C-alpha cells in the first residue's frame, strides 16, 4: 500500500561499526520504562504508552499499529500473497461493521491526514491515528484492529474469486505497475537474482510476485491466512493520550480469544536471511535503464557493502554509536555535495544527493549512493568528473573539524527536539520484530548527546574511506526513450575515468568553501541606515496585532506568538502590483525578473554565498513576481531577524547584476521548458488549453526566452519595488514588538518611496480574467506516451460573489471529496481520488483528474464520479460524512485564534487586511456551519453539477483509437 518514509535517529541504515570510546559501550539498554509491554496467554504482544505532547500546538492524536506476518512466511506458491492479504483485509466488511475500512475511516475521522498500511519481508502493519477526544472512536478502532488480526468474514472473502480479483489482484497489480516496476527492475540489475531463483531471464525477479498474483490458487491464499494470521505472530502498539490500565484491560478483553492453529508451523528467520542474502561480486558494472515518463538523464553511483544487519535499528550501544557516525557522515556529505553545485553554469542539475541507501533488509546490502541529473549525454563526462573528484577528495582527506562540529551541532539540535508519538511507534515495532533498542526519548537523548561529543574526526574519515573504497561500484544511467543506450559510457569508459581521477592531484577541502559572509552590509553602509524614522503605531486588540505605518508609506503588521515548539519568525510582504502592470513583452519579462534576481544575489553577494549564510542562520527567502502580485516570503530562527531583514533590504535596493548568473538562469529555463514534455505536464497543459484557452506556445504561459534581456529585467524589477507604499508586510512568530522595532525602522524604513507611475486602475485594465469553457467533451490520442491514460472531469459555472456562497462551495468540495475518495477505494482503485476546486472571478471549477497505465482505472473514475454526483443530487450527502465535515470546520474556526503557526498568521492577517479587516467573518462562518443542512448541500450540488456545466478531457494511447 501507500508508503511513507519516517526519518529519525533510529530509522537510518547501519553500514559499519567502529570502535567506540565510551566505557559503557557494551552496557545493555533497557526498554522505555514508560511503555506497558505485555504478552497474552495466546502469544499476542502489546505495547501501550501514554504520550502527551506538552509543546505541540496541534490537537493530540492516538496512534494505532497492528503488526502481522510479512513475506518471509510465504511458501513458493504464495509469492506476493502477504501483500495481497493486506489489501483484502482493509477492503473487507468485517463481522462487526457494515462498511469497509476506507469508508469507515473517511466518514468517521475529521483528520484524514494519517493512515498507512505496508507489507515487507518481515511484517505487515496496519496503522492510523485518531483524535484523543472521542472514546467511542477509540473503541471502534480497537475492534477494527481485532477484526484485522483474525476474522471469519475475511477468511470467507479470501475464498471468493470475485472479491479477490476486485480487491486483491486488481489493486496489487495497479500498485506494481504504477509504482514498483521500475524500482524492482533497477534492484534486479544492481544486485542480480537472489539465491534460490532462476537467473535465466532478468524479468523473472522483477515480475515473480507479479506473475504469481495473476495465477495463484485460492487455496494458497487461504493457507497463508490460516497459518500465519495468528496471535503469536502479531503485536499491537498504541501511543497517545490514553489511560494505560484501561487500554490494557480492553486489549485483553478483545484479543485474548485469538486462536492458534491446531498444528502451528514456523519458519526460521536465519534460513530466510541466508536464502535472501546477496553475495557481492567484488567488481563494478554499468546499468542502463529507460524511463518513458521522464525527459531527464539521471546518474546514480553506488558503492555497495555487505552487512550482517537485516534492519536499520540498532540492538546495542555499539551499533547505536555506529549509527551516529553514519548520521554525521550523511550530514557532512550533504553539505559537501551541495558545494559541488555552488557555481554557475555547472553541468550538474541540482540537487546533487549523497546518502547511505539501504536495499530491502533481507538482501543485507547497503550502499553509499550519489544521485544527480545532467542536461544532456554530452555533459556526462564533465558532470561525472566533478562528482567523482569530490568523492575522491573525501576518500583521501575526509572532512574538516569545522564540518564535523557543524554536523554535531545540527544533529544535537534534532536530538533535543521533542521526539513525538510516531517515532515511538516505530521504535516499539523494531523492538518486537528484531529486539532493537527502544529506550524512550529521555534515555536516548542523554545517551546520544554523550556519544556524539566523543566521536572523532578520524572515526568519520575511517567510515568514509571504507565506504568509498569498495570494489563493488555500480553506475546507473536512467534515460528517456529517445536516448539510445549505446550512446552512454560503458563500464570500461567509466572505470578509465575513475582511474585517471585517482591519479589526479586533488587539494584538501577548505572550510571557506562552505562558509557564508561574515557581514552582509558594511559598517559604513549601516551608519547611513538610521533608526530615526517617523512612524505611527496602532493596536488591533481583537487579534493581538500591532500595526506600524512608516514614513515611506510601508505598512507592517506584527503578530507575536508564544509557542514552546515553534521558535521561528515568518515574514510576508505583498504588493498588489505584478507583471500585468506592464504592457506586451515587458509583462513577460517582469514575470521572470524576480527569478533572475534570486539566481544572481543581492548587494555584493552572489546566491551561493547567501545560501551558505542562510544555512548557518536557518534563513529561507523567496521573492516572486506573479501576474497580479509581487511577494516576498521568508522565515528565520528566533533571534536572527536582523539577518533576514538585511537580505530583504539588499534584494529590494541592490539587486545583483551578474551576466554569468543570467546565462545560468537562461540555460536552466530552457531545460525546464524542454522537460515539460513528460506525460503529467502534457496532460495538465492539454486541460488548461481546452478549459481556459491557455496554449503552451502562447506568451501567457511560456515566455519567449529570446525576448528577455538582463538589463530590462532588472529595470522592471526595480520599478516594482520603487515605492514602499505599495507593499504591506506581516511578521509573525517568536519575538517581542519593541525588540524588533529598531530593525524594522533601520531596514524596511529605508525602502525607496519615489512613485513608479503605476496605478491600480492600470492593473485592473490589464488583468486578463480567465474564465473556463463549459461543454467541452474531447478525447485525444497520442503514441508519445505509451500505455498512459488520463481523464479530467470538470464542472464549471457562475456563483454569487458572496462570502457565504464561497464558503458553502468549499463545504461541498469537502463532502464530495470524502465520498469520491471512499468510493474509489471500495471500487478497487489503489490511489485515492480527490476533488480540487477553484473559486474566482465569479466562477467555480470543480475537477477530478486521474492518470494510470490501465484504461479500466479511467473508466472506473468516470463511473465513480458520475454515480457519487447522482447520489449527492438525489439523496443529499451521507449524514455521517456531513456531520464530520461540519464538525471539523467548526473545530477549526472555534480554535482559530489558538493557532500558533507563524505562516498561518501571516496569510490570515494579509487576507484580513486586503478584505478591510472583517473580523466578524469567522463568526459568520460559524453561524453558517450551525444552520447548514444536508438539504442545502444537495440543492447547491444540483445547481453546480449539471450537464451544461460539464467538460471531460481524455488522453489515450493511439492504439485505443477506433479506425
Automatic annotation (TrEMBL):
GO annotation, biological process: proteolysis
GO MF annotations, alphabetized: metal ion binding; metallopeptidase activity
PANTHER family: NARDILYSIN (PTHR43690), PROTEIN YHJJ (PTHR43690:SF17)
Alphabetical UniProt keywords: Hydrolase, Metalloprotease, Protease, Zinc
Highest taxon above the source species: Bacteria
InterPro entries linked to this entry: Metalloenz_LuxS/M16 (IPR011249), Pept_M16_N (IPR011765), Peptidase_M16 (IPR050626), Peptidase_M16_C (IPR007863)
Entry similarity comment: Belongs to the peptidase M16 family.
Listed Pfam families: Peptidase_M16, Peptidase_M16_C
Gene3D superfamilies, per the entry: Metalloenzyme, LuxS/M16 peptidase-like (3.30.830.10)
Stretches assigned to the Peptidase M16 C-terminal domain: 216-410, 708-878
Name the UniProt record assigns to this protein: Insulinase family protein
Residue span(s) of domain Peptidase M16 N-terminal: 67-157
Amino acid at each position: 500500500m501507500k508508503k511513507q518514509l519516517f526519518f529519525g535517529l533510529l530509522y537510518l541504515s547501519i553500514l559499519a561499526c567502529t570502535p567506540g570510546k565510551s566505557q559503557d559501550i557494551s552496557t545493555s539498554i533497557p526498554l522505555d520504562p514508560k511503555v506497558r509491554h505485555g504478552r497474552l496467554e495466546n502469544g499476542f504482544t502489546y505495547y501501550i504508552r501514554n504520550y502527551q505532547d506538552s509543546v505541540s500546538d496541534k490537537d493530540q492524536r492516538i496512534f494505532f499499529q497492528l503488526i502481522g506476518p510479512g513475506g518471509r512466511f510465504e511458501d513458493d506458491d504464495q509469492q506476493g500473497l502477504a501483500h495481497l492479504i493486506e489489501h483484502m483485509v482493509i477492503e473487507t466488511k468485517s463481522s462487526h461493521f457494515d462498511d469497509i475500512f476506507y469508508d469507515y475511516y473517511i466518514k468517521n475521522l475529521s483528520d484524514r491526514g494519517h493512515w498507512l498500511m505496508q507489507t515487507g519481508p518481515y511484517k505487515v502493519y496496519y496503522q492510523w491515528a485518531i483524535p484523543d477526544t472521542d472514546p467511542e472512536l477509540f473503541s471502534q478502532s480497537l475492534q477494527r484492529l481485532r477484526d484485522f488480526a483474525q476474522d471469519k468474514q475475511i477468511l470467507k472473502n479470501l475464498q471468493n474469486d470475485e472479491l479477490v480479483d476486485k480487491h486483491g489482484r486488481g489493486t496489487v497489480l495497479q500498485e506494481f505497475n504504477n509504482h514498483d516496476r521500475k524500482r524492482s527492475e533497477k534492484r534486479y540489475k544492481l544486485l542480480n537474482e537472489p539465491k534460490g531463483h532462476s537467473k535465466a531471464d532478468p524479468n523473472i525477479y522483477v515480475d515473480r510476485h507479479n506473475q504469481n498474483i495473476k495465477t495463484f490458487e485460492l487455496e494458497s491464499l487461504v493457507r497463508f491466512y490460516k497459518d500465519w494470521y495468528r496471535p503469536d505472530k502479531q503485536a499491537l502498539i498504541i501511543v497517545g493520550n490514553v489511560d494505560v490500565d484501561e487500554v490494557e484491560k480492553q486489549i485483553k478483553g478483545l484479543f485474548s480469544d485469538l486462536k492458534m492453529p491446531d498444528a502451528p508451523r514456523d519458519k526460521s528467520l536465519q534460513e530466510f536471511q541466508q536464502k535472501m542474502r546477496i553475495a557481492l561480486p567484488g567488481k563494478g558494472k554499468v546499468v542502463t535503464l529507460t524511463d518513458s515518463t521522464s525527459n531527464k538523464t539521471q546518474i546514480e553511483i553506488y558503492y555497495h557493502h555487505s552487512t550482517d544487519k537485516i534492519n536499520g535499528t540498532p540492538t546495542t550501544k555499539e551499533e547505536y554509536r555506529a549509527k551516529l557516525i553514519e548520521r554525521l557522515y550523511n550530514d557532512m556529505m550533504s553539505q559537501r555535495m551541495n558545494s559541488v553545485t555552488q557555481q554557475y553554469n555547472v553541468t550538474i542539475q541540482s540537487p546533487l544527493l549523497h546518502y547511505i541507501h539501504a536495499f530491502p533488509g533481507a538482501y543485507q546490502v547497503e550502499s553509499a549512493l550519489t544521485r544527480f541529473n545532467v542536461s544532456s549525454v554530452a555533459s556526462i563526462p564533465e558532470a561525472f568528473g566533478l562528482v567523482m573528484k569530490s568523492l575522491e577528495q573525501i576518500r583521501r582527506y575526509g572532512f574538516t573539524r569545522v564540518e564535523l562540529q557543524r554536523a554535531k551541532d545540527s544533529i544535537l539540535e534534532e536530538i533535543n527536539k521533542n521526539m513525538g508519538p510516531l517515532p515511538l511507534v516505530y521504535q516499539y515495532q523494531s523492538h518486537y520484530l528484531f529486539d532493537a533498542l527502544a529506550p524512550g526519548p529521555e534515555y536516548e537523548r542523554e545517551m546520544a548527546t554523550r556519544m556524539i561529543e566523543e566521536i572523532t574526526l578520524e572515526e568519520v574519515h575511517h567510515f568514509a574511506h571504507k565506504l568509498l573504497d569498495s570494489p563493488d561500484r555500480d553506475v546507473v544511467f536512467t534515460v528517456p526513450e529517445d536516448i539510445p543506450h549505446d550512446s552512454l559510457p560503458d563500464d570500461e569508459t567509466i572505470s578509465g575515468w575513475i582511474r585517471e581521477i585517482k591519479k589526479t592531484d586533488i587539494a584538501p577541502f577548505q572550510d571557506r568553501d562552505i562558509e557564508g559572509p561574515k557581514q552582509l552590509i558594511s559598517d559604513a553602509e549601516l551608519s547611513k541606515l538610521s533608526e530615526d524614522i517617523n512612524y505611527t503605531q496602532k493596536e488591533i486588540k481583537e487579534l493581538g496585532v500591532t500595526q506600524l505605518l512608516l514614513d515611506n508609506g510601508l505598512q507592517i503588521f506584527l503578530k507575536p506568538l508564544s509557542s514552546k515548539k515553534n521558535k521561528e519568525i515568518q515574514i510576508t510582504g505583498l504588493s498588489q502590483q505584478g507583471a500585468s502592470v506592464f504592457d506586451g513583452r515587458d509583462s513577460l519579462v517582469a514575470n521572470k525578473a524576480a527569478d533572475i534576481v534570486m539566481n544572481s544575489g543581492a548587494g555584493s553577494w552572489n546566491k551561493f554565498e547567501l545560501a551558505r549564510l542562510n544555512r548557518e542562520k536557518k534563513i529561507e527567502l523567496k521573492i516572486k513576481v506573479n501576474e497580479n502580485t509581487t511577494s516576498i516570503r521568508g522565515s528565520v530562527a528566533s533571534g536572527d531577524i536582523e539577518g533576514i531583514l538585511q537580505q530583504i533590504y539588499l534584494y529590494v535596493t541592490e539587486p545583483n547584476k551578474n551576466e554569468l548568473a543570467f546565462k545560468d538562469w537562461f540555460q536552466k529555463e530552457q531545460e525546464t521548458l524542454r522537460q515539460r514534455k513528460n506525460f503529467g505536464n502534457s496532460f495538465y497543459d492539454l486541460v488548461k488549453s481546452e478549459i481556459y484557452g491557455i496554449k503552451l506556445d502562447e506568451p501567457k504561459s511560456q515566455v519567449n526566452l529570446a525576448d528577455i534581456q538582463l538589463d530590462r529585467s532588472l529595470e522592471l524589477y526595480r520599478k516594482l519595488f520603487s515605492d514602499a507604499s505599495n507593499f504591506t508586510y506581516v511578521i509573525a512568530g517568536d519575538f517581542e514588538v519593541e525588540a524588533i522595532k529598531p530593525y524594522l525602522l533601520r531596514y524596511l524604513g529605508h525602502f525607496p518611496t519615489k512613485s513608479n507611475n503605476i496605478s491600480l486602475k492600470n492593473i485592473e485594465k490589464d488583468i486578463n480574467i480567465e474564465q473556463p469553457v463549459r461543454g467541452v467533451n474531447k478525447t485525444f490520442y497520442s503514441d508519445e506516451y505509451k500505455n498512459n491514460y488520463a481523464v479530467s472531469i470538470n464542472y464549471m459555472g457562475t456563483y454569487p460573489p458572496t462570502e457565504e456562497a464561497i464558503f458553502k462551495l468549499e463545504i461541498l468540495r469537502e463532502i464530495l471529496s470524502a465520498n469520491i475518495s471512499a468510493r474509489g477505494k471500495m471500487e478497487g482503485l489503489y490511489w485515492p481520488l480527490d476533488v480540487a476546486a477553484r473559486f474566482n472571478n465569479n466562477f467555480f471549477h470543480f475537477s477530478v483528474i486521474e492518470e494510470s497505465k490501465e484504461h479500466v482505472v479511467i473508466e472506473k473514475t468516470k463511473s465513480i464520479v458520475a454515480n457519487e454526483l447522482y447520489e449527492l443530487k438525489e439523496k443529499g450527502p451521507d449524514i455521517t460524512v456531513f456531520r464530520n465535515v461540519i464538525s471539523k470546520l467548526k473545530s477549526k474556526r472555534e480554535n482559530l485564534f489558538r493557532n500558533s503557526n507563524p505562516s498561518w498568521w501571516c496569510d490570515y492577517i494579509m487576507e484580513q487586511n486586503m478584505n478591510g479587516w472583517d473580523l466578524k467573518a469567522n463568526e459568520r462562518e460559524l453561524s453558517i456551519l450551525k444552520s447548514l443542512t444536508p438539504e442545502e448541500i444537495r440543492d447547491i450540488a444540483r445547481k453546480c453539477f449539471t450537464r451544461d456545466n460539464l467538460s471531460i478531457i481524455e488522453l489515450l494511447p493511439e492504439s485505443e483509437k477506433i479506425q
